[in-house]
Amino acid sequence: MQTQVNRVRDLIDAALKSGVYEVGEPLIEDRLMVALGASRTAVRTALRMLADQGRLIRKPRVGTLPVPSGVRVAIDDISYLDPIDPSHTLAVTIRVTDRRPVPTSALLAAVLETDDPYVRLTENVYVHDGEVFGMRTAYYRLAAGLEPRVVQIADMPQIARDVFQVDQLIVDSTEIGTAEADAASARVLGVEPHTRVLTRRQVFVDRDAHPVQVAFDQYRPDEVTFVSMNAMIRARPSGACETSGA
Predict the structure, then answer these.
(1) 66 by DSSP, 3-state: which?
(2) How many Å apart are CA 64 and CA 32, to the nearest integer?
(3) Mind listing the domains of the chain with CATH numbers?
(4) Is the distance from CB of 228 to CB of 73 less than 8 angstroms?
(5) How many other CB atoms are there within 10 angstroms of residue 127's CB atom?
(6) How distant, in Å, are the alpha carbons of 19, 110, 183, 220, 227 from that of 194?
(7) What stretch of H or E contains 35?
């Protein structure tokens, strides 16, 4: 029985982390029994264990509910969706940890379409509720402006105007994957070395399709879920503010 309980707990926990269960929607024991092929005792025990861990909350006359947690990241944008209220984006703080000129590699020269011998590197971390959930290493031409050391909420038009001196910043391509965190990344993200983290590579262009920036992101897999921008737009009520956290 203990093996079945652990299996059920792990499956429910994975579903919670990946956003399978909607916030505010009770977890029904009968449905879980059928979906997971488990006994009522195993399901009930697993739910109790997850509640004890703070992953679920039990409310009288309502049921067992997922505890809103983590950050939903737009796959092809720089928006961070509030898991508690999907009609709003999170107040994410960007903290710059390093910025300096670096030699232009063959890859950067090709992606940024530049002959300059140096490009600017900027590294920053993404912070929500005092905890780092992601980090970014970005490269762009030296002619671009410097990002502020700390940004509370930034949207694409603001970044385009203040940093890159262009009137529009567009995500041209996005690649999602996973990779093992090296010692330095693991320390920043607060995970064990070699933990597999979520990765995202993005190329940004201006309105004339000229490359502006290439960015490489790493996110904690236990804190971040990627969602499509279309889903985020559908979640917003008509007339809602579309301020993005970068």
Answers:
(1) strand
(2) 12
(3) 2-66 (1.10.10.10), 71-235 (3.40.1410.10)
(4) no
(5) 16
(6) 24, 30, 8, 12, 25
(7) helix 29-36
| Cα 24 from chain centre | 21
Is the pTM for the entire model greater than 0.70?
no
39 class by beta-carbon count within 10 Å (0-12 exposed, 13-18 middle, 19+ buried): middle
**Spatial distance between the Cα atoms of 64 and 47, rounded to a whole number of angstroms:** 8
The β-bridge relationship of strands 211-219 and 63-66 is unpaired
How far, in Å, CA of 214 to CA of 5, rounded?
45
| Residues whose CB falls within 8 Å of the CB of residue 204, separated by 6 or more in sequence, listed in order | 169, 170, 171, 172, 211, 212, 213, 214, 215
Mean pLDDT score across all residues of the chain: 82
Q: Report the share of the chain in percent with pLDDT over 90.
A: 47
User: Which H helix or E strand runs over 93?
Assistant: strand 93-103
DSSP category for residue 34: H
3-state percent breakdown (helix, strand, coil) of the chain, nearest 5 = 25, 35, 40
Segments of the chain with pLDDT less than 70: 1-2, 18-19, 68-69, 78-79, 81-89, 145-156, 229-246
Contact call for residues 140 and 119 (beta carbons, < 8 A): yes
Query: Rounded to 5 degrees, what are φ and ψ at 155?
Result: -115, 170
